[in-house]
Inverse folding.
């Protein structure tokens, strides 16, 4: 008779909420804590990036002080890999196999992340929000466990290329790039953006190594090539040198500076604020040293955070704001995961952020991810330096 | 042509950096017949000391002088405490000690001061007074290097202490017989070298910005410079520095590309060591069999 | 070798074989790396400990071996085990060629020249004309070998046994060579260069060959390391690698085969300990360890073990054996 199906339906209906309320844990998650693993270069030549790991660690301290996420404390395990891929492999295996973390978060650097890319995906452990702008992390079909966070370098390069094509199609471009994956990724995006005009517009391409004491020689080469537009792909230390040298030699190109070095505190001030007038870059979050954000509540909240939880951190260093923002994003993801702390669910939540906005991002920029969109922050805005602060202009570009 | 000239001048400017560190290397060699792999890190550490003083409010020149003294004392202490025990040990032990010193200094500095780059002030005016190719600071730094060179020359040539230092390095036993306190001469040599290194660091930092890995790239070029000029000749070291700077820039810009600049240093070092170990101006050493 | 020593070695070997079944895959992986380093250190020790030629650039040969293996596997589809002999030959030749100009250099100057090699190698690896082969800054990703013949082993375990087998082979070969004429010639050159020459030893040939063989050992280690890590990139092979190797042989014990093993265990496991002591300045702890060894245990762990054993033996000999 019809009682059986009705009874069955009732049973299912009654059972489901209970099933939903069940807690589900993968290794690294429990009623009390969530273990998050990380590698960062705290020593060696890339150690200036290590402050990101430290600022993230400080963020979790703050979260724990406020009661944790859904009542669980965050256990942050971060090892030094010295930016050396073999070391990264070893430390990541330790995190996954010995420390049994739930997920890996913000592992830093393209070579280190490349070294563990296959491993993480074969072990089915999230390699979440990696700290590199390389484009290859947005590949959910082949690597469903890996996701980037920041706008990738190629997109940014393309933005500059499009700006040049629109405003100065007859430009003669000189490029200075760091001779590694970061520099070459930017260059690729830039060239792709210029399309078949790349070969004719780029009159000189020079590279430098991190071991070079100065890039003065390269700037001289670029000036001698007759370029009137300059795409500057350098990390802060060399960016400051390049800006200063270009100014001192009297070379006044239209100067595009990559976002990694668009910091007032660590690049423009050392180079000379007056020498940096006219610089064009992109930005996606608020530079704490920019006077226009002095009274911004998000920036003030960040300052309070830094003073209390990371007092030895450098307020001039935008990496510390970056760390804060990316940690907020994971915070949101873990909060949404609720009591279902399986690795599958963590990735699912990470891949379903709709319009999420940590307030430290520039107005108008939101984080969106989806099953085919593993690129959280894709929007940037062009900015121009007026001698005092960065002025945003134009629309929000990207997605 | 103008581009070439510009590269040469830029090369002279960077060469000034190499020359100043090479001077410190030569100084150590003259006093102890050792090549100090940790010289760059010692210079960097002294520069951080200067930065701390200036950051705390001290004006530039008093901080400069105090740092020179600090560096001197640091050199002496290192010699007495760290190098002394391995004085008569095989050369490998000494090399290992230098390497240990290098990593300790680098790591401790990063720990105390963090790895974010810092600006270091320059005592020279901001406007380029030597024309647009060389900033006043770069010109000034070259000047300071030459002054230090002159002082060294006078010291070694015309003072009894300088003579004693040279004697202690060349022939410790005979020097002892004559009454020279060889132990203290070595310490003095280290102190002087460290002081010169400190000056080098303070001249370099405004150009390359201060961070714990500041001297990493410079060290190899400074070695090349010291060897090319003659490891025991201060003037040779300065000449070597300029030569290496110009070669690096010119070759990098016009011949082999910027990627292989470090390889230039490698080739120079091996080339000099194999073809003419005494460099341009060094003394040719003859060992008795 | 005495029977007691042979028994001890057999026991050690048995223990080594049992290891992967007693510990986790991660630890097995770590021990595989330690074995790799022991081969590299054996190579360096040959050159520096036995022959007195200081090298601060052996990381370069490790890199050459690693890249050879990676390129052969990636571009030519060669199986992993076949890359080893080729990497060996390439590094033998490279080492020999470097050893030729190095003949004229002594002590600190050789250290300086090899230091320069170690510092400039990453730049050479990134050179864009070689990019087609080396993968440039992106490096090369390779696959981990699977156990052959369908053996019921984890890839990690298989790799451990493979590396162990190679290590045992390399150690036996080295022990044989160092005991024989070549080894004696090497030591003679180290201790009394001129007398050795006068005795009729072709010092130039011996020194260059030693450089070559030493590079070959380190190159084989590099190839094995690349297979274990499954990735090569220029950043993996900077000057710190060469420095770590030097540390390894000094701590382990110069001119000692067992020293290579102690040293390898040190450089594999101590940095992790240092990291735990001081997150902020791990290299400083490492440096302090280094100084400690140079001052207190200059003969390295191997030397200390030797002295301890000798003292025990003496005590045993002096103890009263007669009863009244």
């Amino acid at each position: 008779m019809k009682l059986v199906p009705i009874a069955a339906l009732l049973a299912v209906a009654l059972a489901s909420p209970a099933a939903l309320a069940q807690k589900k844990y993968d290794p690294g998650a429990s009623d009390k804590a969530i273990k998050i693993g990380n590698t960062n270069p705290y020593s060696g030549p890339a150690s200036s990036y290590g402050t990101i790991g430290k600022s993230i660690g400080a963020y979790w301290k703050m979260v724990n002080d406020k009661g944790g996420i859904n009542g669980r404390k965050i256990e942050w395990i971060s090892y030094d890999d010295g930016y050396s891929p073999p070391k990264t492999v070893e430390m990541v295996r330790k995190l996954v196999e010995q420390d049994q973390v739930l997920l890996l978060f913000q592992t830093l650097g393209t070579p280190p992340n490349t070294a563990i890319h296959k491993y993480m995906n074969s072990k089915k452990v999230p390699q979440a929000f990696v700290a590199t702008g390389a484009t290859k992390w947005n590949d959910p079909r082949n690597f469903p466990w890996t996701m980037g966070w920041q706008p990738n370098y190629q997109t940014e390069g393309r933005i500059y290329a499009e700006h040049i094509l629109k405003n100065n199609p007859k430009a003669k471009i000189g490029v200075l790039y760091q001779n590694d994956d970061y520099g070459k990724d930017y260059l690729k995006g830039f060239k792709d953006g210029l399309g078949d005009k790349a070969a004719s517009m780029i009159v000189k391409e020079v590279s430098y190594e991190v071991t070079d004491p100065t890039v003065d020689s390269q700037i001289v080469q670029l000036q001698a090539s007759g370029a009137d537009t300059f795409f500057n792909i350098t990390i802060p230390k060399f960016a400051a040198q390049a800006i200063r040298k270009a100014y001192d030699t009297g070379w006044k190109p239209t100067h595009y500076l990559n976002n990694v070095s668009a910091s007032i505190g660590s690049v423009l001030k050392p180079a000379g604020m007056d020498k940096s007038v006219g610089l064009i870059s992109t930005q996606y979050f608020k530079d704490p040293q920019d006077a226009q954000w002095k009274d911004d509540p998000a920036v003030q909240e960040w300052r309070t955070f830094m003073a209390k939880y990371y007092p030895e951190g450098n307020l001039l260093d935008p990496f510390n704001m970056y760390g804060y923002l990316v940690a907020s994003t994971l915070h949101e993801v873990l909060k949404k995961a609720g009591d279902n702390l399986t690795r599958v669910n963590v990735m699912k939540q990470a891949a379903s952020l709709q319009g999420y906005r940590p307030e430290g991002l520039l107005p108008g920029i939101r984080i969106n991810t989806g099953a085919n969109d593993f690129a959280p922050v894709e929007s940037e805005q062009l900015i121009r330096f007026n001698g005092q602060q960065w002025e945003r202009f134009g629309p929000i570009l990207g997605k | 042509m103008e581009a070439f000239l510009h590269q040469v001048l830029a090369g002279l400017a960077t060469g000034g950096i190499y020359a100043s560190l090479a001077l410190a290397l030569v100084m150590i060699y003259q006093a102890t017949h050792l090549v100090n792999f940790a010289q760059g890190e010692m210079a960097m550490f002294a520069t951080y000391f200067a930065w701390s003083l200036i950051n705390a409010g001290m004006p530039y020149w008093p901080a400069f002088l105090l740092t020179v003294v600090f560096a001197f004392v640091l050199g002496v202490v290192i010699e007495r405490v760290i190098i002394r025990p391995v004085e008569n040990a095989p050369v490998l032990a000494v090399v290992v000690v230098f390497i240990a010193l290098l990593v300790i200094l680098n790591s401790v500095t990063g720990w105390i001061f963090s790895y974010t780059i810092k600006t270091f002030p320059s005592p020279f005016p901001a406007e380029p007074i030597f024309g647009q190719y060389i900033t006043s600071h770069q010109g000034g730094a070259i000047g300071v290097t030459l002054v230090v060179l002159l002082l060294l020359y006078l010291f070694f040539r015309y003072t009894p202490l300088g003579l004693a230092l040279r004697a202690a390095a060349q022939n410790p036993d005979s020097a002892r017989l004559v009454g020279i306190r060889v132990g203290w001469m070595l310490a003095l040599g280290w102190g002087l070298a460290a002081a010169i290194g400190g000056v080098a660091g303070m001249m370099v930092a405004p150009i390359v910005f201060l961070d714990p890995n500041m001297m990493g790239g410079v060290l190899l070029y400074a070695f090349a410079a010291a060897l090319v000029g003659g490891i025991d000749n201060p003037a040779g070291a300065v000449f070597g520095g300029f030569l290496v700077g110009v070669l690096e820039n010119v070759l990098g810009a016009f011949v082999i590309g910027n990627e292989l600049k470090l390889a230039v240093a490698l080739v120079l070092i091996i080339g000099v060591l194999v073809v003419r170990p005494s460099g341009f101006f060094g003394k040719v050493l003859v060992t008795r069999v | 070798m005495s029977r007691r020593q042979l028994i001890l070695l057999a026991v050690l070997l048995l223990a080594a074989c049992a290891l992967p079944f007693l510990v986790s895959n991660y630890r097995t992986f770590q021990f595989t790396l330690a074995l790799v380093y022991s081969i590299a250190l054996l190579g360096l020790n040959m050159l520096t400990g036995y022959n007195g030629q200081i090298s601060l650039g052996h990381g370069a040969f490790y890199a050459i071996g690693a890249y050879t293996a990676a390129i052969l596997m990636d571009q030519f589809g060669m199986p992993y085990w076949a890359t080893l002999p080729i990497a060996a030959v390439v590094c033998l030749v490279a080492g020999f060629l470097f050893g030729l100009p190095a003949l004229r250099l002594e002590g600190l100057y050789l250290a300086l020249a090899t230091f320069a090699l170690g510092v400039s190698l990453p730049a050479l690896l990134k050179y864009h004309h070689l990019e087609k082969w080396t993968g440039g800054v992106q490096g090369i990703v390779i696959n981990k070998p699977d156990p052959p013949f369908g053996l019921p082993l984890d890839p990690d375990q298989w790799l451990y046994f493979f590396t162990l087998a190679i290590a045992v082979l390399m150690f036996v070969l080295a022990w044989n060579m160092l005991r024989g004429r070549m080894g004696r010639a090497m030591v003679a050159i180290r201790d009394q260069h001129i007398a050795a020459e006068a005795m009729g030893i072709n010092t130039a040939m011996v020194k260059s060959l030693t450089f070559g063989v030493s590079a070959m050992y380190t190159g084989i280690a590099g190839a094995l390391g690349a297979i274990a890590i499954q990735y090569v990139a220029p950043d993996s092979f900077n000057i710190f690698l060469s420095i770590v190797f030097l540390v390894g042989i000094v701590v382990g014990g110069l001119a000692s085969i067992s020293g290579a093993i102690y040293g390898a265990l040190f450089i594999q496991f101590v940095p992790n300990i240092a990291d735990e002591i001081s997150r902020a300045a791990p290299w400083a702890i490492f440096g302090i360890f280094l100084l400690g060894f140079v001052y207190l245990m200059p003969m390295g762990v191997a030397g200390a073990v030797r002295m301890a054993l000798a003292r025990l033996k003496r005590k045993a000999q002096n103890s009263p054996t007669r009863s009244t």
The radius of gyration of chain B is 19 Å.
